[in-house]
Design brief:
By secondary structure, the chain is mostly beta strands. The chain has a single domain, classed as Putative cyclase (Glucose Oxidase, domain 1). The protein starts with 12 loop residues before the first strand and ends in a 5-residue tail after the last strand.
Length: 189
């Protein structure tokens, strides 16, 4: 028998509503259809001048039911001290837009979807999780995904009373003759 002792926020992980709200849905209550084979809408933002990702980024796409993946390029610092400082994040305005647009899941290749230097303010977690939108943090390799056409999956185990847990996140690319169709988008592949 193997034993693992760890906190839920390890590696690439998913947040369910229970992570923020005591009465919210825990990992065991998540609908598998909101986690598997989601249409991926990838926003390539690595050249952005601002750390905060606002609503203006999302205005030209249909995001209803999609996995909205924020490629900031910050994953290049994964495992280094710099990773936790001055990282990109989703603004309150951006989170509100994604709620109104009906996104199913929002993922980011950063240490936190909220501004970790804000002194505890967590508007993206608050708004997204209240709306039942899952959050995946610490993604890597989003640069290998097209803006549209990939399918995204990130499934945690069904554990009652847990709000966050590591996932094996991956994307299936549209038909491509020369390359592997499955791309790992978490450090563990």
């Amino acid at each position: 028998m193997d034993i693992i002792t760890m906190i839920g926020n390890t590696g690439t992980y998913i947040d369910s509503p229970f992570h923020r709200y005591a009465g919210g849905t825990d990992l065991a209550g998540l609908d598998i259809e909101t986690l598997v084979d989601l249409r991926a809408e990838v926003f390539h933002l690595s050249a952005a001048a601002e750390r905060g990702i606002g609503a203006e980024v999302f205005r030209d796409r249909d995001l209803a039911g999609a996995a909205v993946l924020l490629h900031t390029g910050w994953d290049r610092h994964f495992g280094e001290e710099e990773y936790g400082h001055a990282a990109p994040y989703l603004t309150e305005e951006g989170a509100r837009f994604l709620v109104d647009a009906g996104a199913a899941l929002v993922g980011i290749d950063s240490v936190n979807i909220d501004d970790a230097s804000s002194g505890g303010e967590r508007p993206a977690h608050t708004l997204l999780l209240a709306a039942g939108i899952h959050i995946v943090e610490h993604l890597t390799g989003l640069d290998r995904l097209p803006a549209r056409g990939a399918r995204f999956t990130a499934v945690p185990p069904k554990i009652e009373g847990f709000g966050t847990f590591p996932v094996r996140a991956f994307a299936v690319l549209p038909e491509a003759a020369d390359e592997s169709r499955v791309q790992g988008v978490s450090p563990q592949g």
